[in-house]
């Protein structure tokens, strides 16, 4: 896939070259600017960001550790596609870890924490109404992390954030194609209400169901999409 990069206005601050490249590339991958199995042109990206290949490679290695890039012999950095089995594993891990995080966080959640989560949810729903696709994933993570942060489980939070990044590229497609946003908004509000009541059991149960139901729908959607694409490719090959 041929891609053109623009020099104007995209040079990064030199004091934080690698970290700035990580942040920028992560956002571009998560909002779908690069496609599954696309090889990133390191020379073009380094020129665009006005940095050398060394900090760019460091940034790409960090994104590889997050599962957002994969280095392949002879190809370089590639945006990997997740199989249905891998997506199911991400969903299962989230369903195990996040309800426990939430249950641990609820006794420590303050009214300020809950108001912050509610405010993020307002922004999330506004983004749905405005079709602001690029911000959906970030706002979803901000909402969830606002509820989990009082758990004080920093290591688990870091791992869960990586799982959200892996899931985010595909969840954006799901929401755009299936109008999942109304159901997501309703379920988020129910989880928040359970947190306000300090009902750990109910909140954890709602969260687990929210993750599993959305995950199963996403897997079904991707399998249908990929099956349709494969059938079209086979059909074209016989023409």
Characteristic key phrases:
239 residues, Arc Repressor Mutant, subunit A, Four Helix Bundle (Hemerythrin (Met), subunit A), two-stranded antiparallel ribbon, 9 helices, disordered C terminus
Compact description:
The protein has 239 residues and is mainly α. It is built from nine helices and two strands. The chain has helices spanning 17-30, 42-49, 53-65, 84-105, 111-129, 133-148, 154-178, 181-196, 200-237, and strands at residues 70-72, 76-78.
Give an overview in words.
- This protein is mainly alpha-helical and 239 residues long.
- The protein has 2 domains: 14-78, Arc Repressor Mutant, subunit A; 84-230, GntR ligand-binding domain-like (Four Helix Bundle (Hemerythrin (Met), subunit A), Up-down Bundle).
- 72% of the residues lie in helices and 3% in strands.
- It contains 9 helices and 2 strands.
- It has helices at 17-30, 42-49, 53-65, 84-105, 111-129, 133-148, 154-178, 181-196, 200-237, and strands at residues 70-72, 76-78.
- It has a two-stranded antiparallel sheet with strand order 1-2.
- Helix 4 runs antiparallel to helix 9 and helix 5 packs antiparallel against helix 8 (181-196).
- The longest helix has 38 residues, at 200-237.
- Mean pLDDT is 84; it is low at 230-239.
């Amino acid at each position: 896939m041929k891609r053109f990069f623009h020099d104007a206005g995209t040079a990064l601050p030199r004091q934080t070259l690698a970290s700035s490249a990580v942040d920028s590339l992560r956002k571009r991958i998560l909002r779908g600017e690069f496609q599954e199995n696309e090889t990133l042109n390191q020379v073009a990206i380094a020129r665009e960001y006005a940095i050398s290949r060394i900090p760019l490679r460091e940034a790409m290695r960090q994104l590889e550790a997050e599962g957002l890039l994969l280095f392949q012999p002879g190809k370089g950095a590639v945006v990997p596609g997740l199989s249905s089995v891998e997506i199911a594993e991400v969903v299962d891990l989230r369903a195990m870890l996040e309800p426990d995080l939430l249950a641990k966080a609820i006794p420590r959640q303050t009214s300020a924490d809950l108001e912050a989560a509610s405010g993020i949810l307002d922004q999330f729903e506004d983004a749905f109404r405005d079709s602001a696709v690029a911000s959906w994933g970030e706002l979803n993570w901000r909402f969830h992390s606002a509820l989990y942060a009082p758990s004080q489980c920093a290591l688990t939070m870091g791992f869960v954030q990586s799982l959200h990044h892996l899931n985010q590229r595909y969840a954006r497609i799901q929401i755009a194609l299936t109008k999942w946003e109304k159901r997501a908004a309703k379920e988020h509000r129910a989880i928040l209400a359970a947190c306000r009541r300090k009902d750990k059991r109910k909140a954890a149960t709602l969260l687990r169901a929210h993750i599993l139901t959305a995950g199963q729908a996403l897997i079904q959607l991707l399998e249908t999409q990929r099956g349709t694409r494969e059938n079209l490719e086979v059909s074209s090959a016989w023409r």
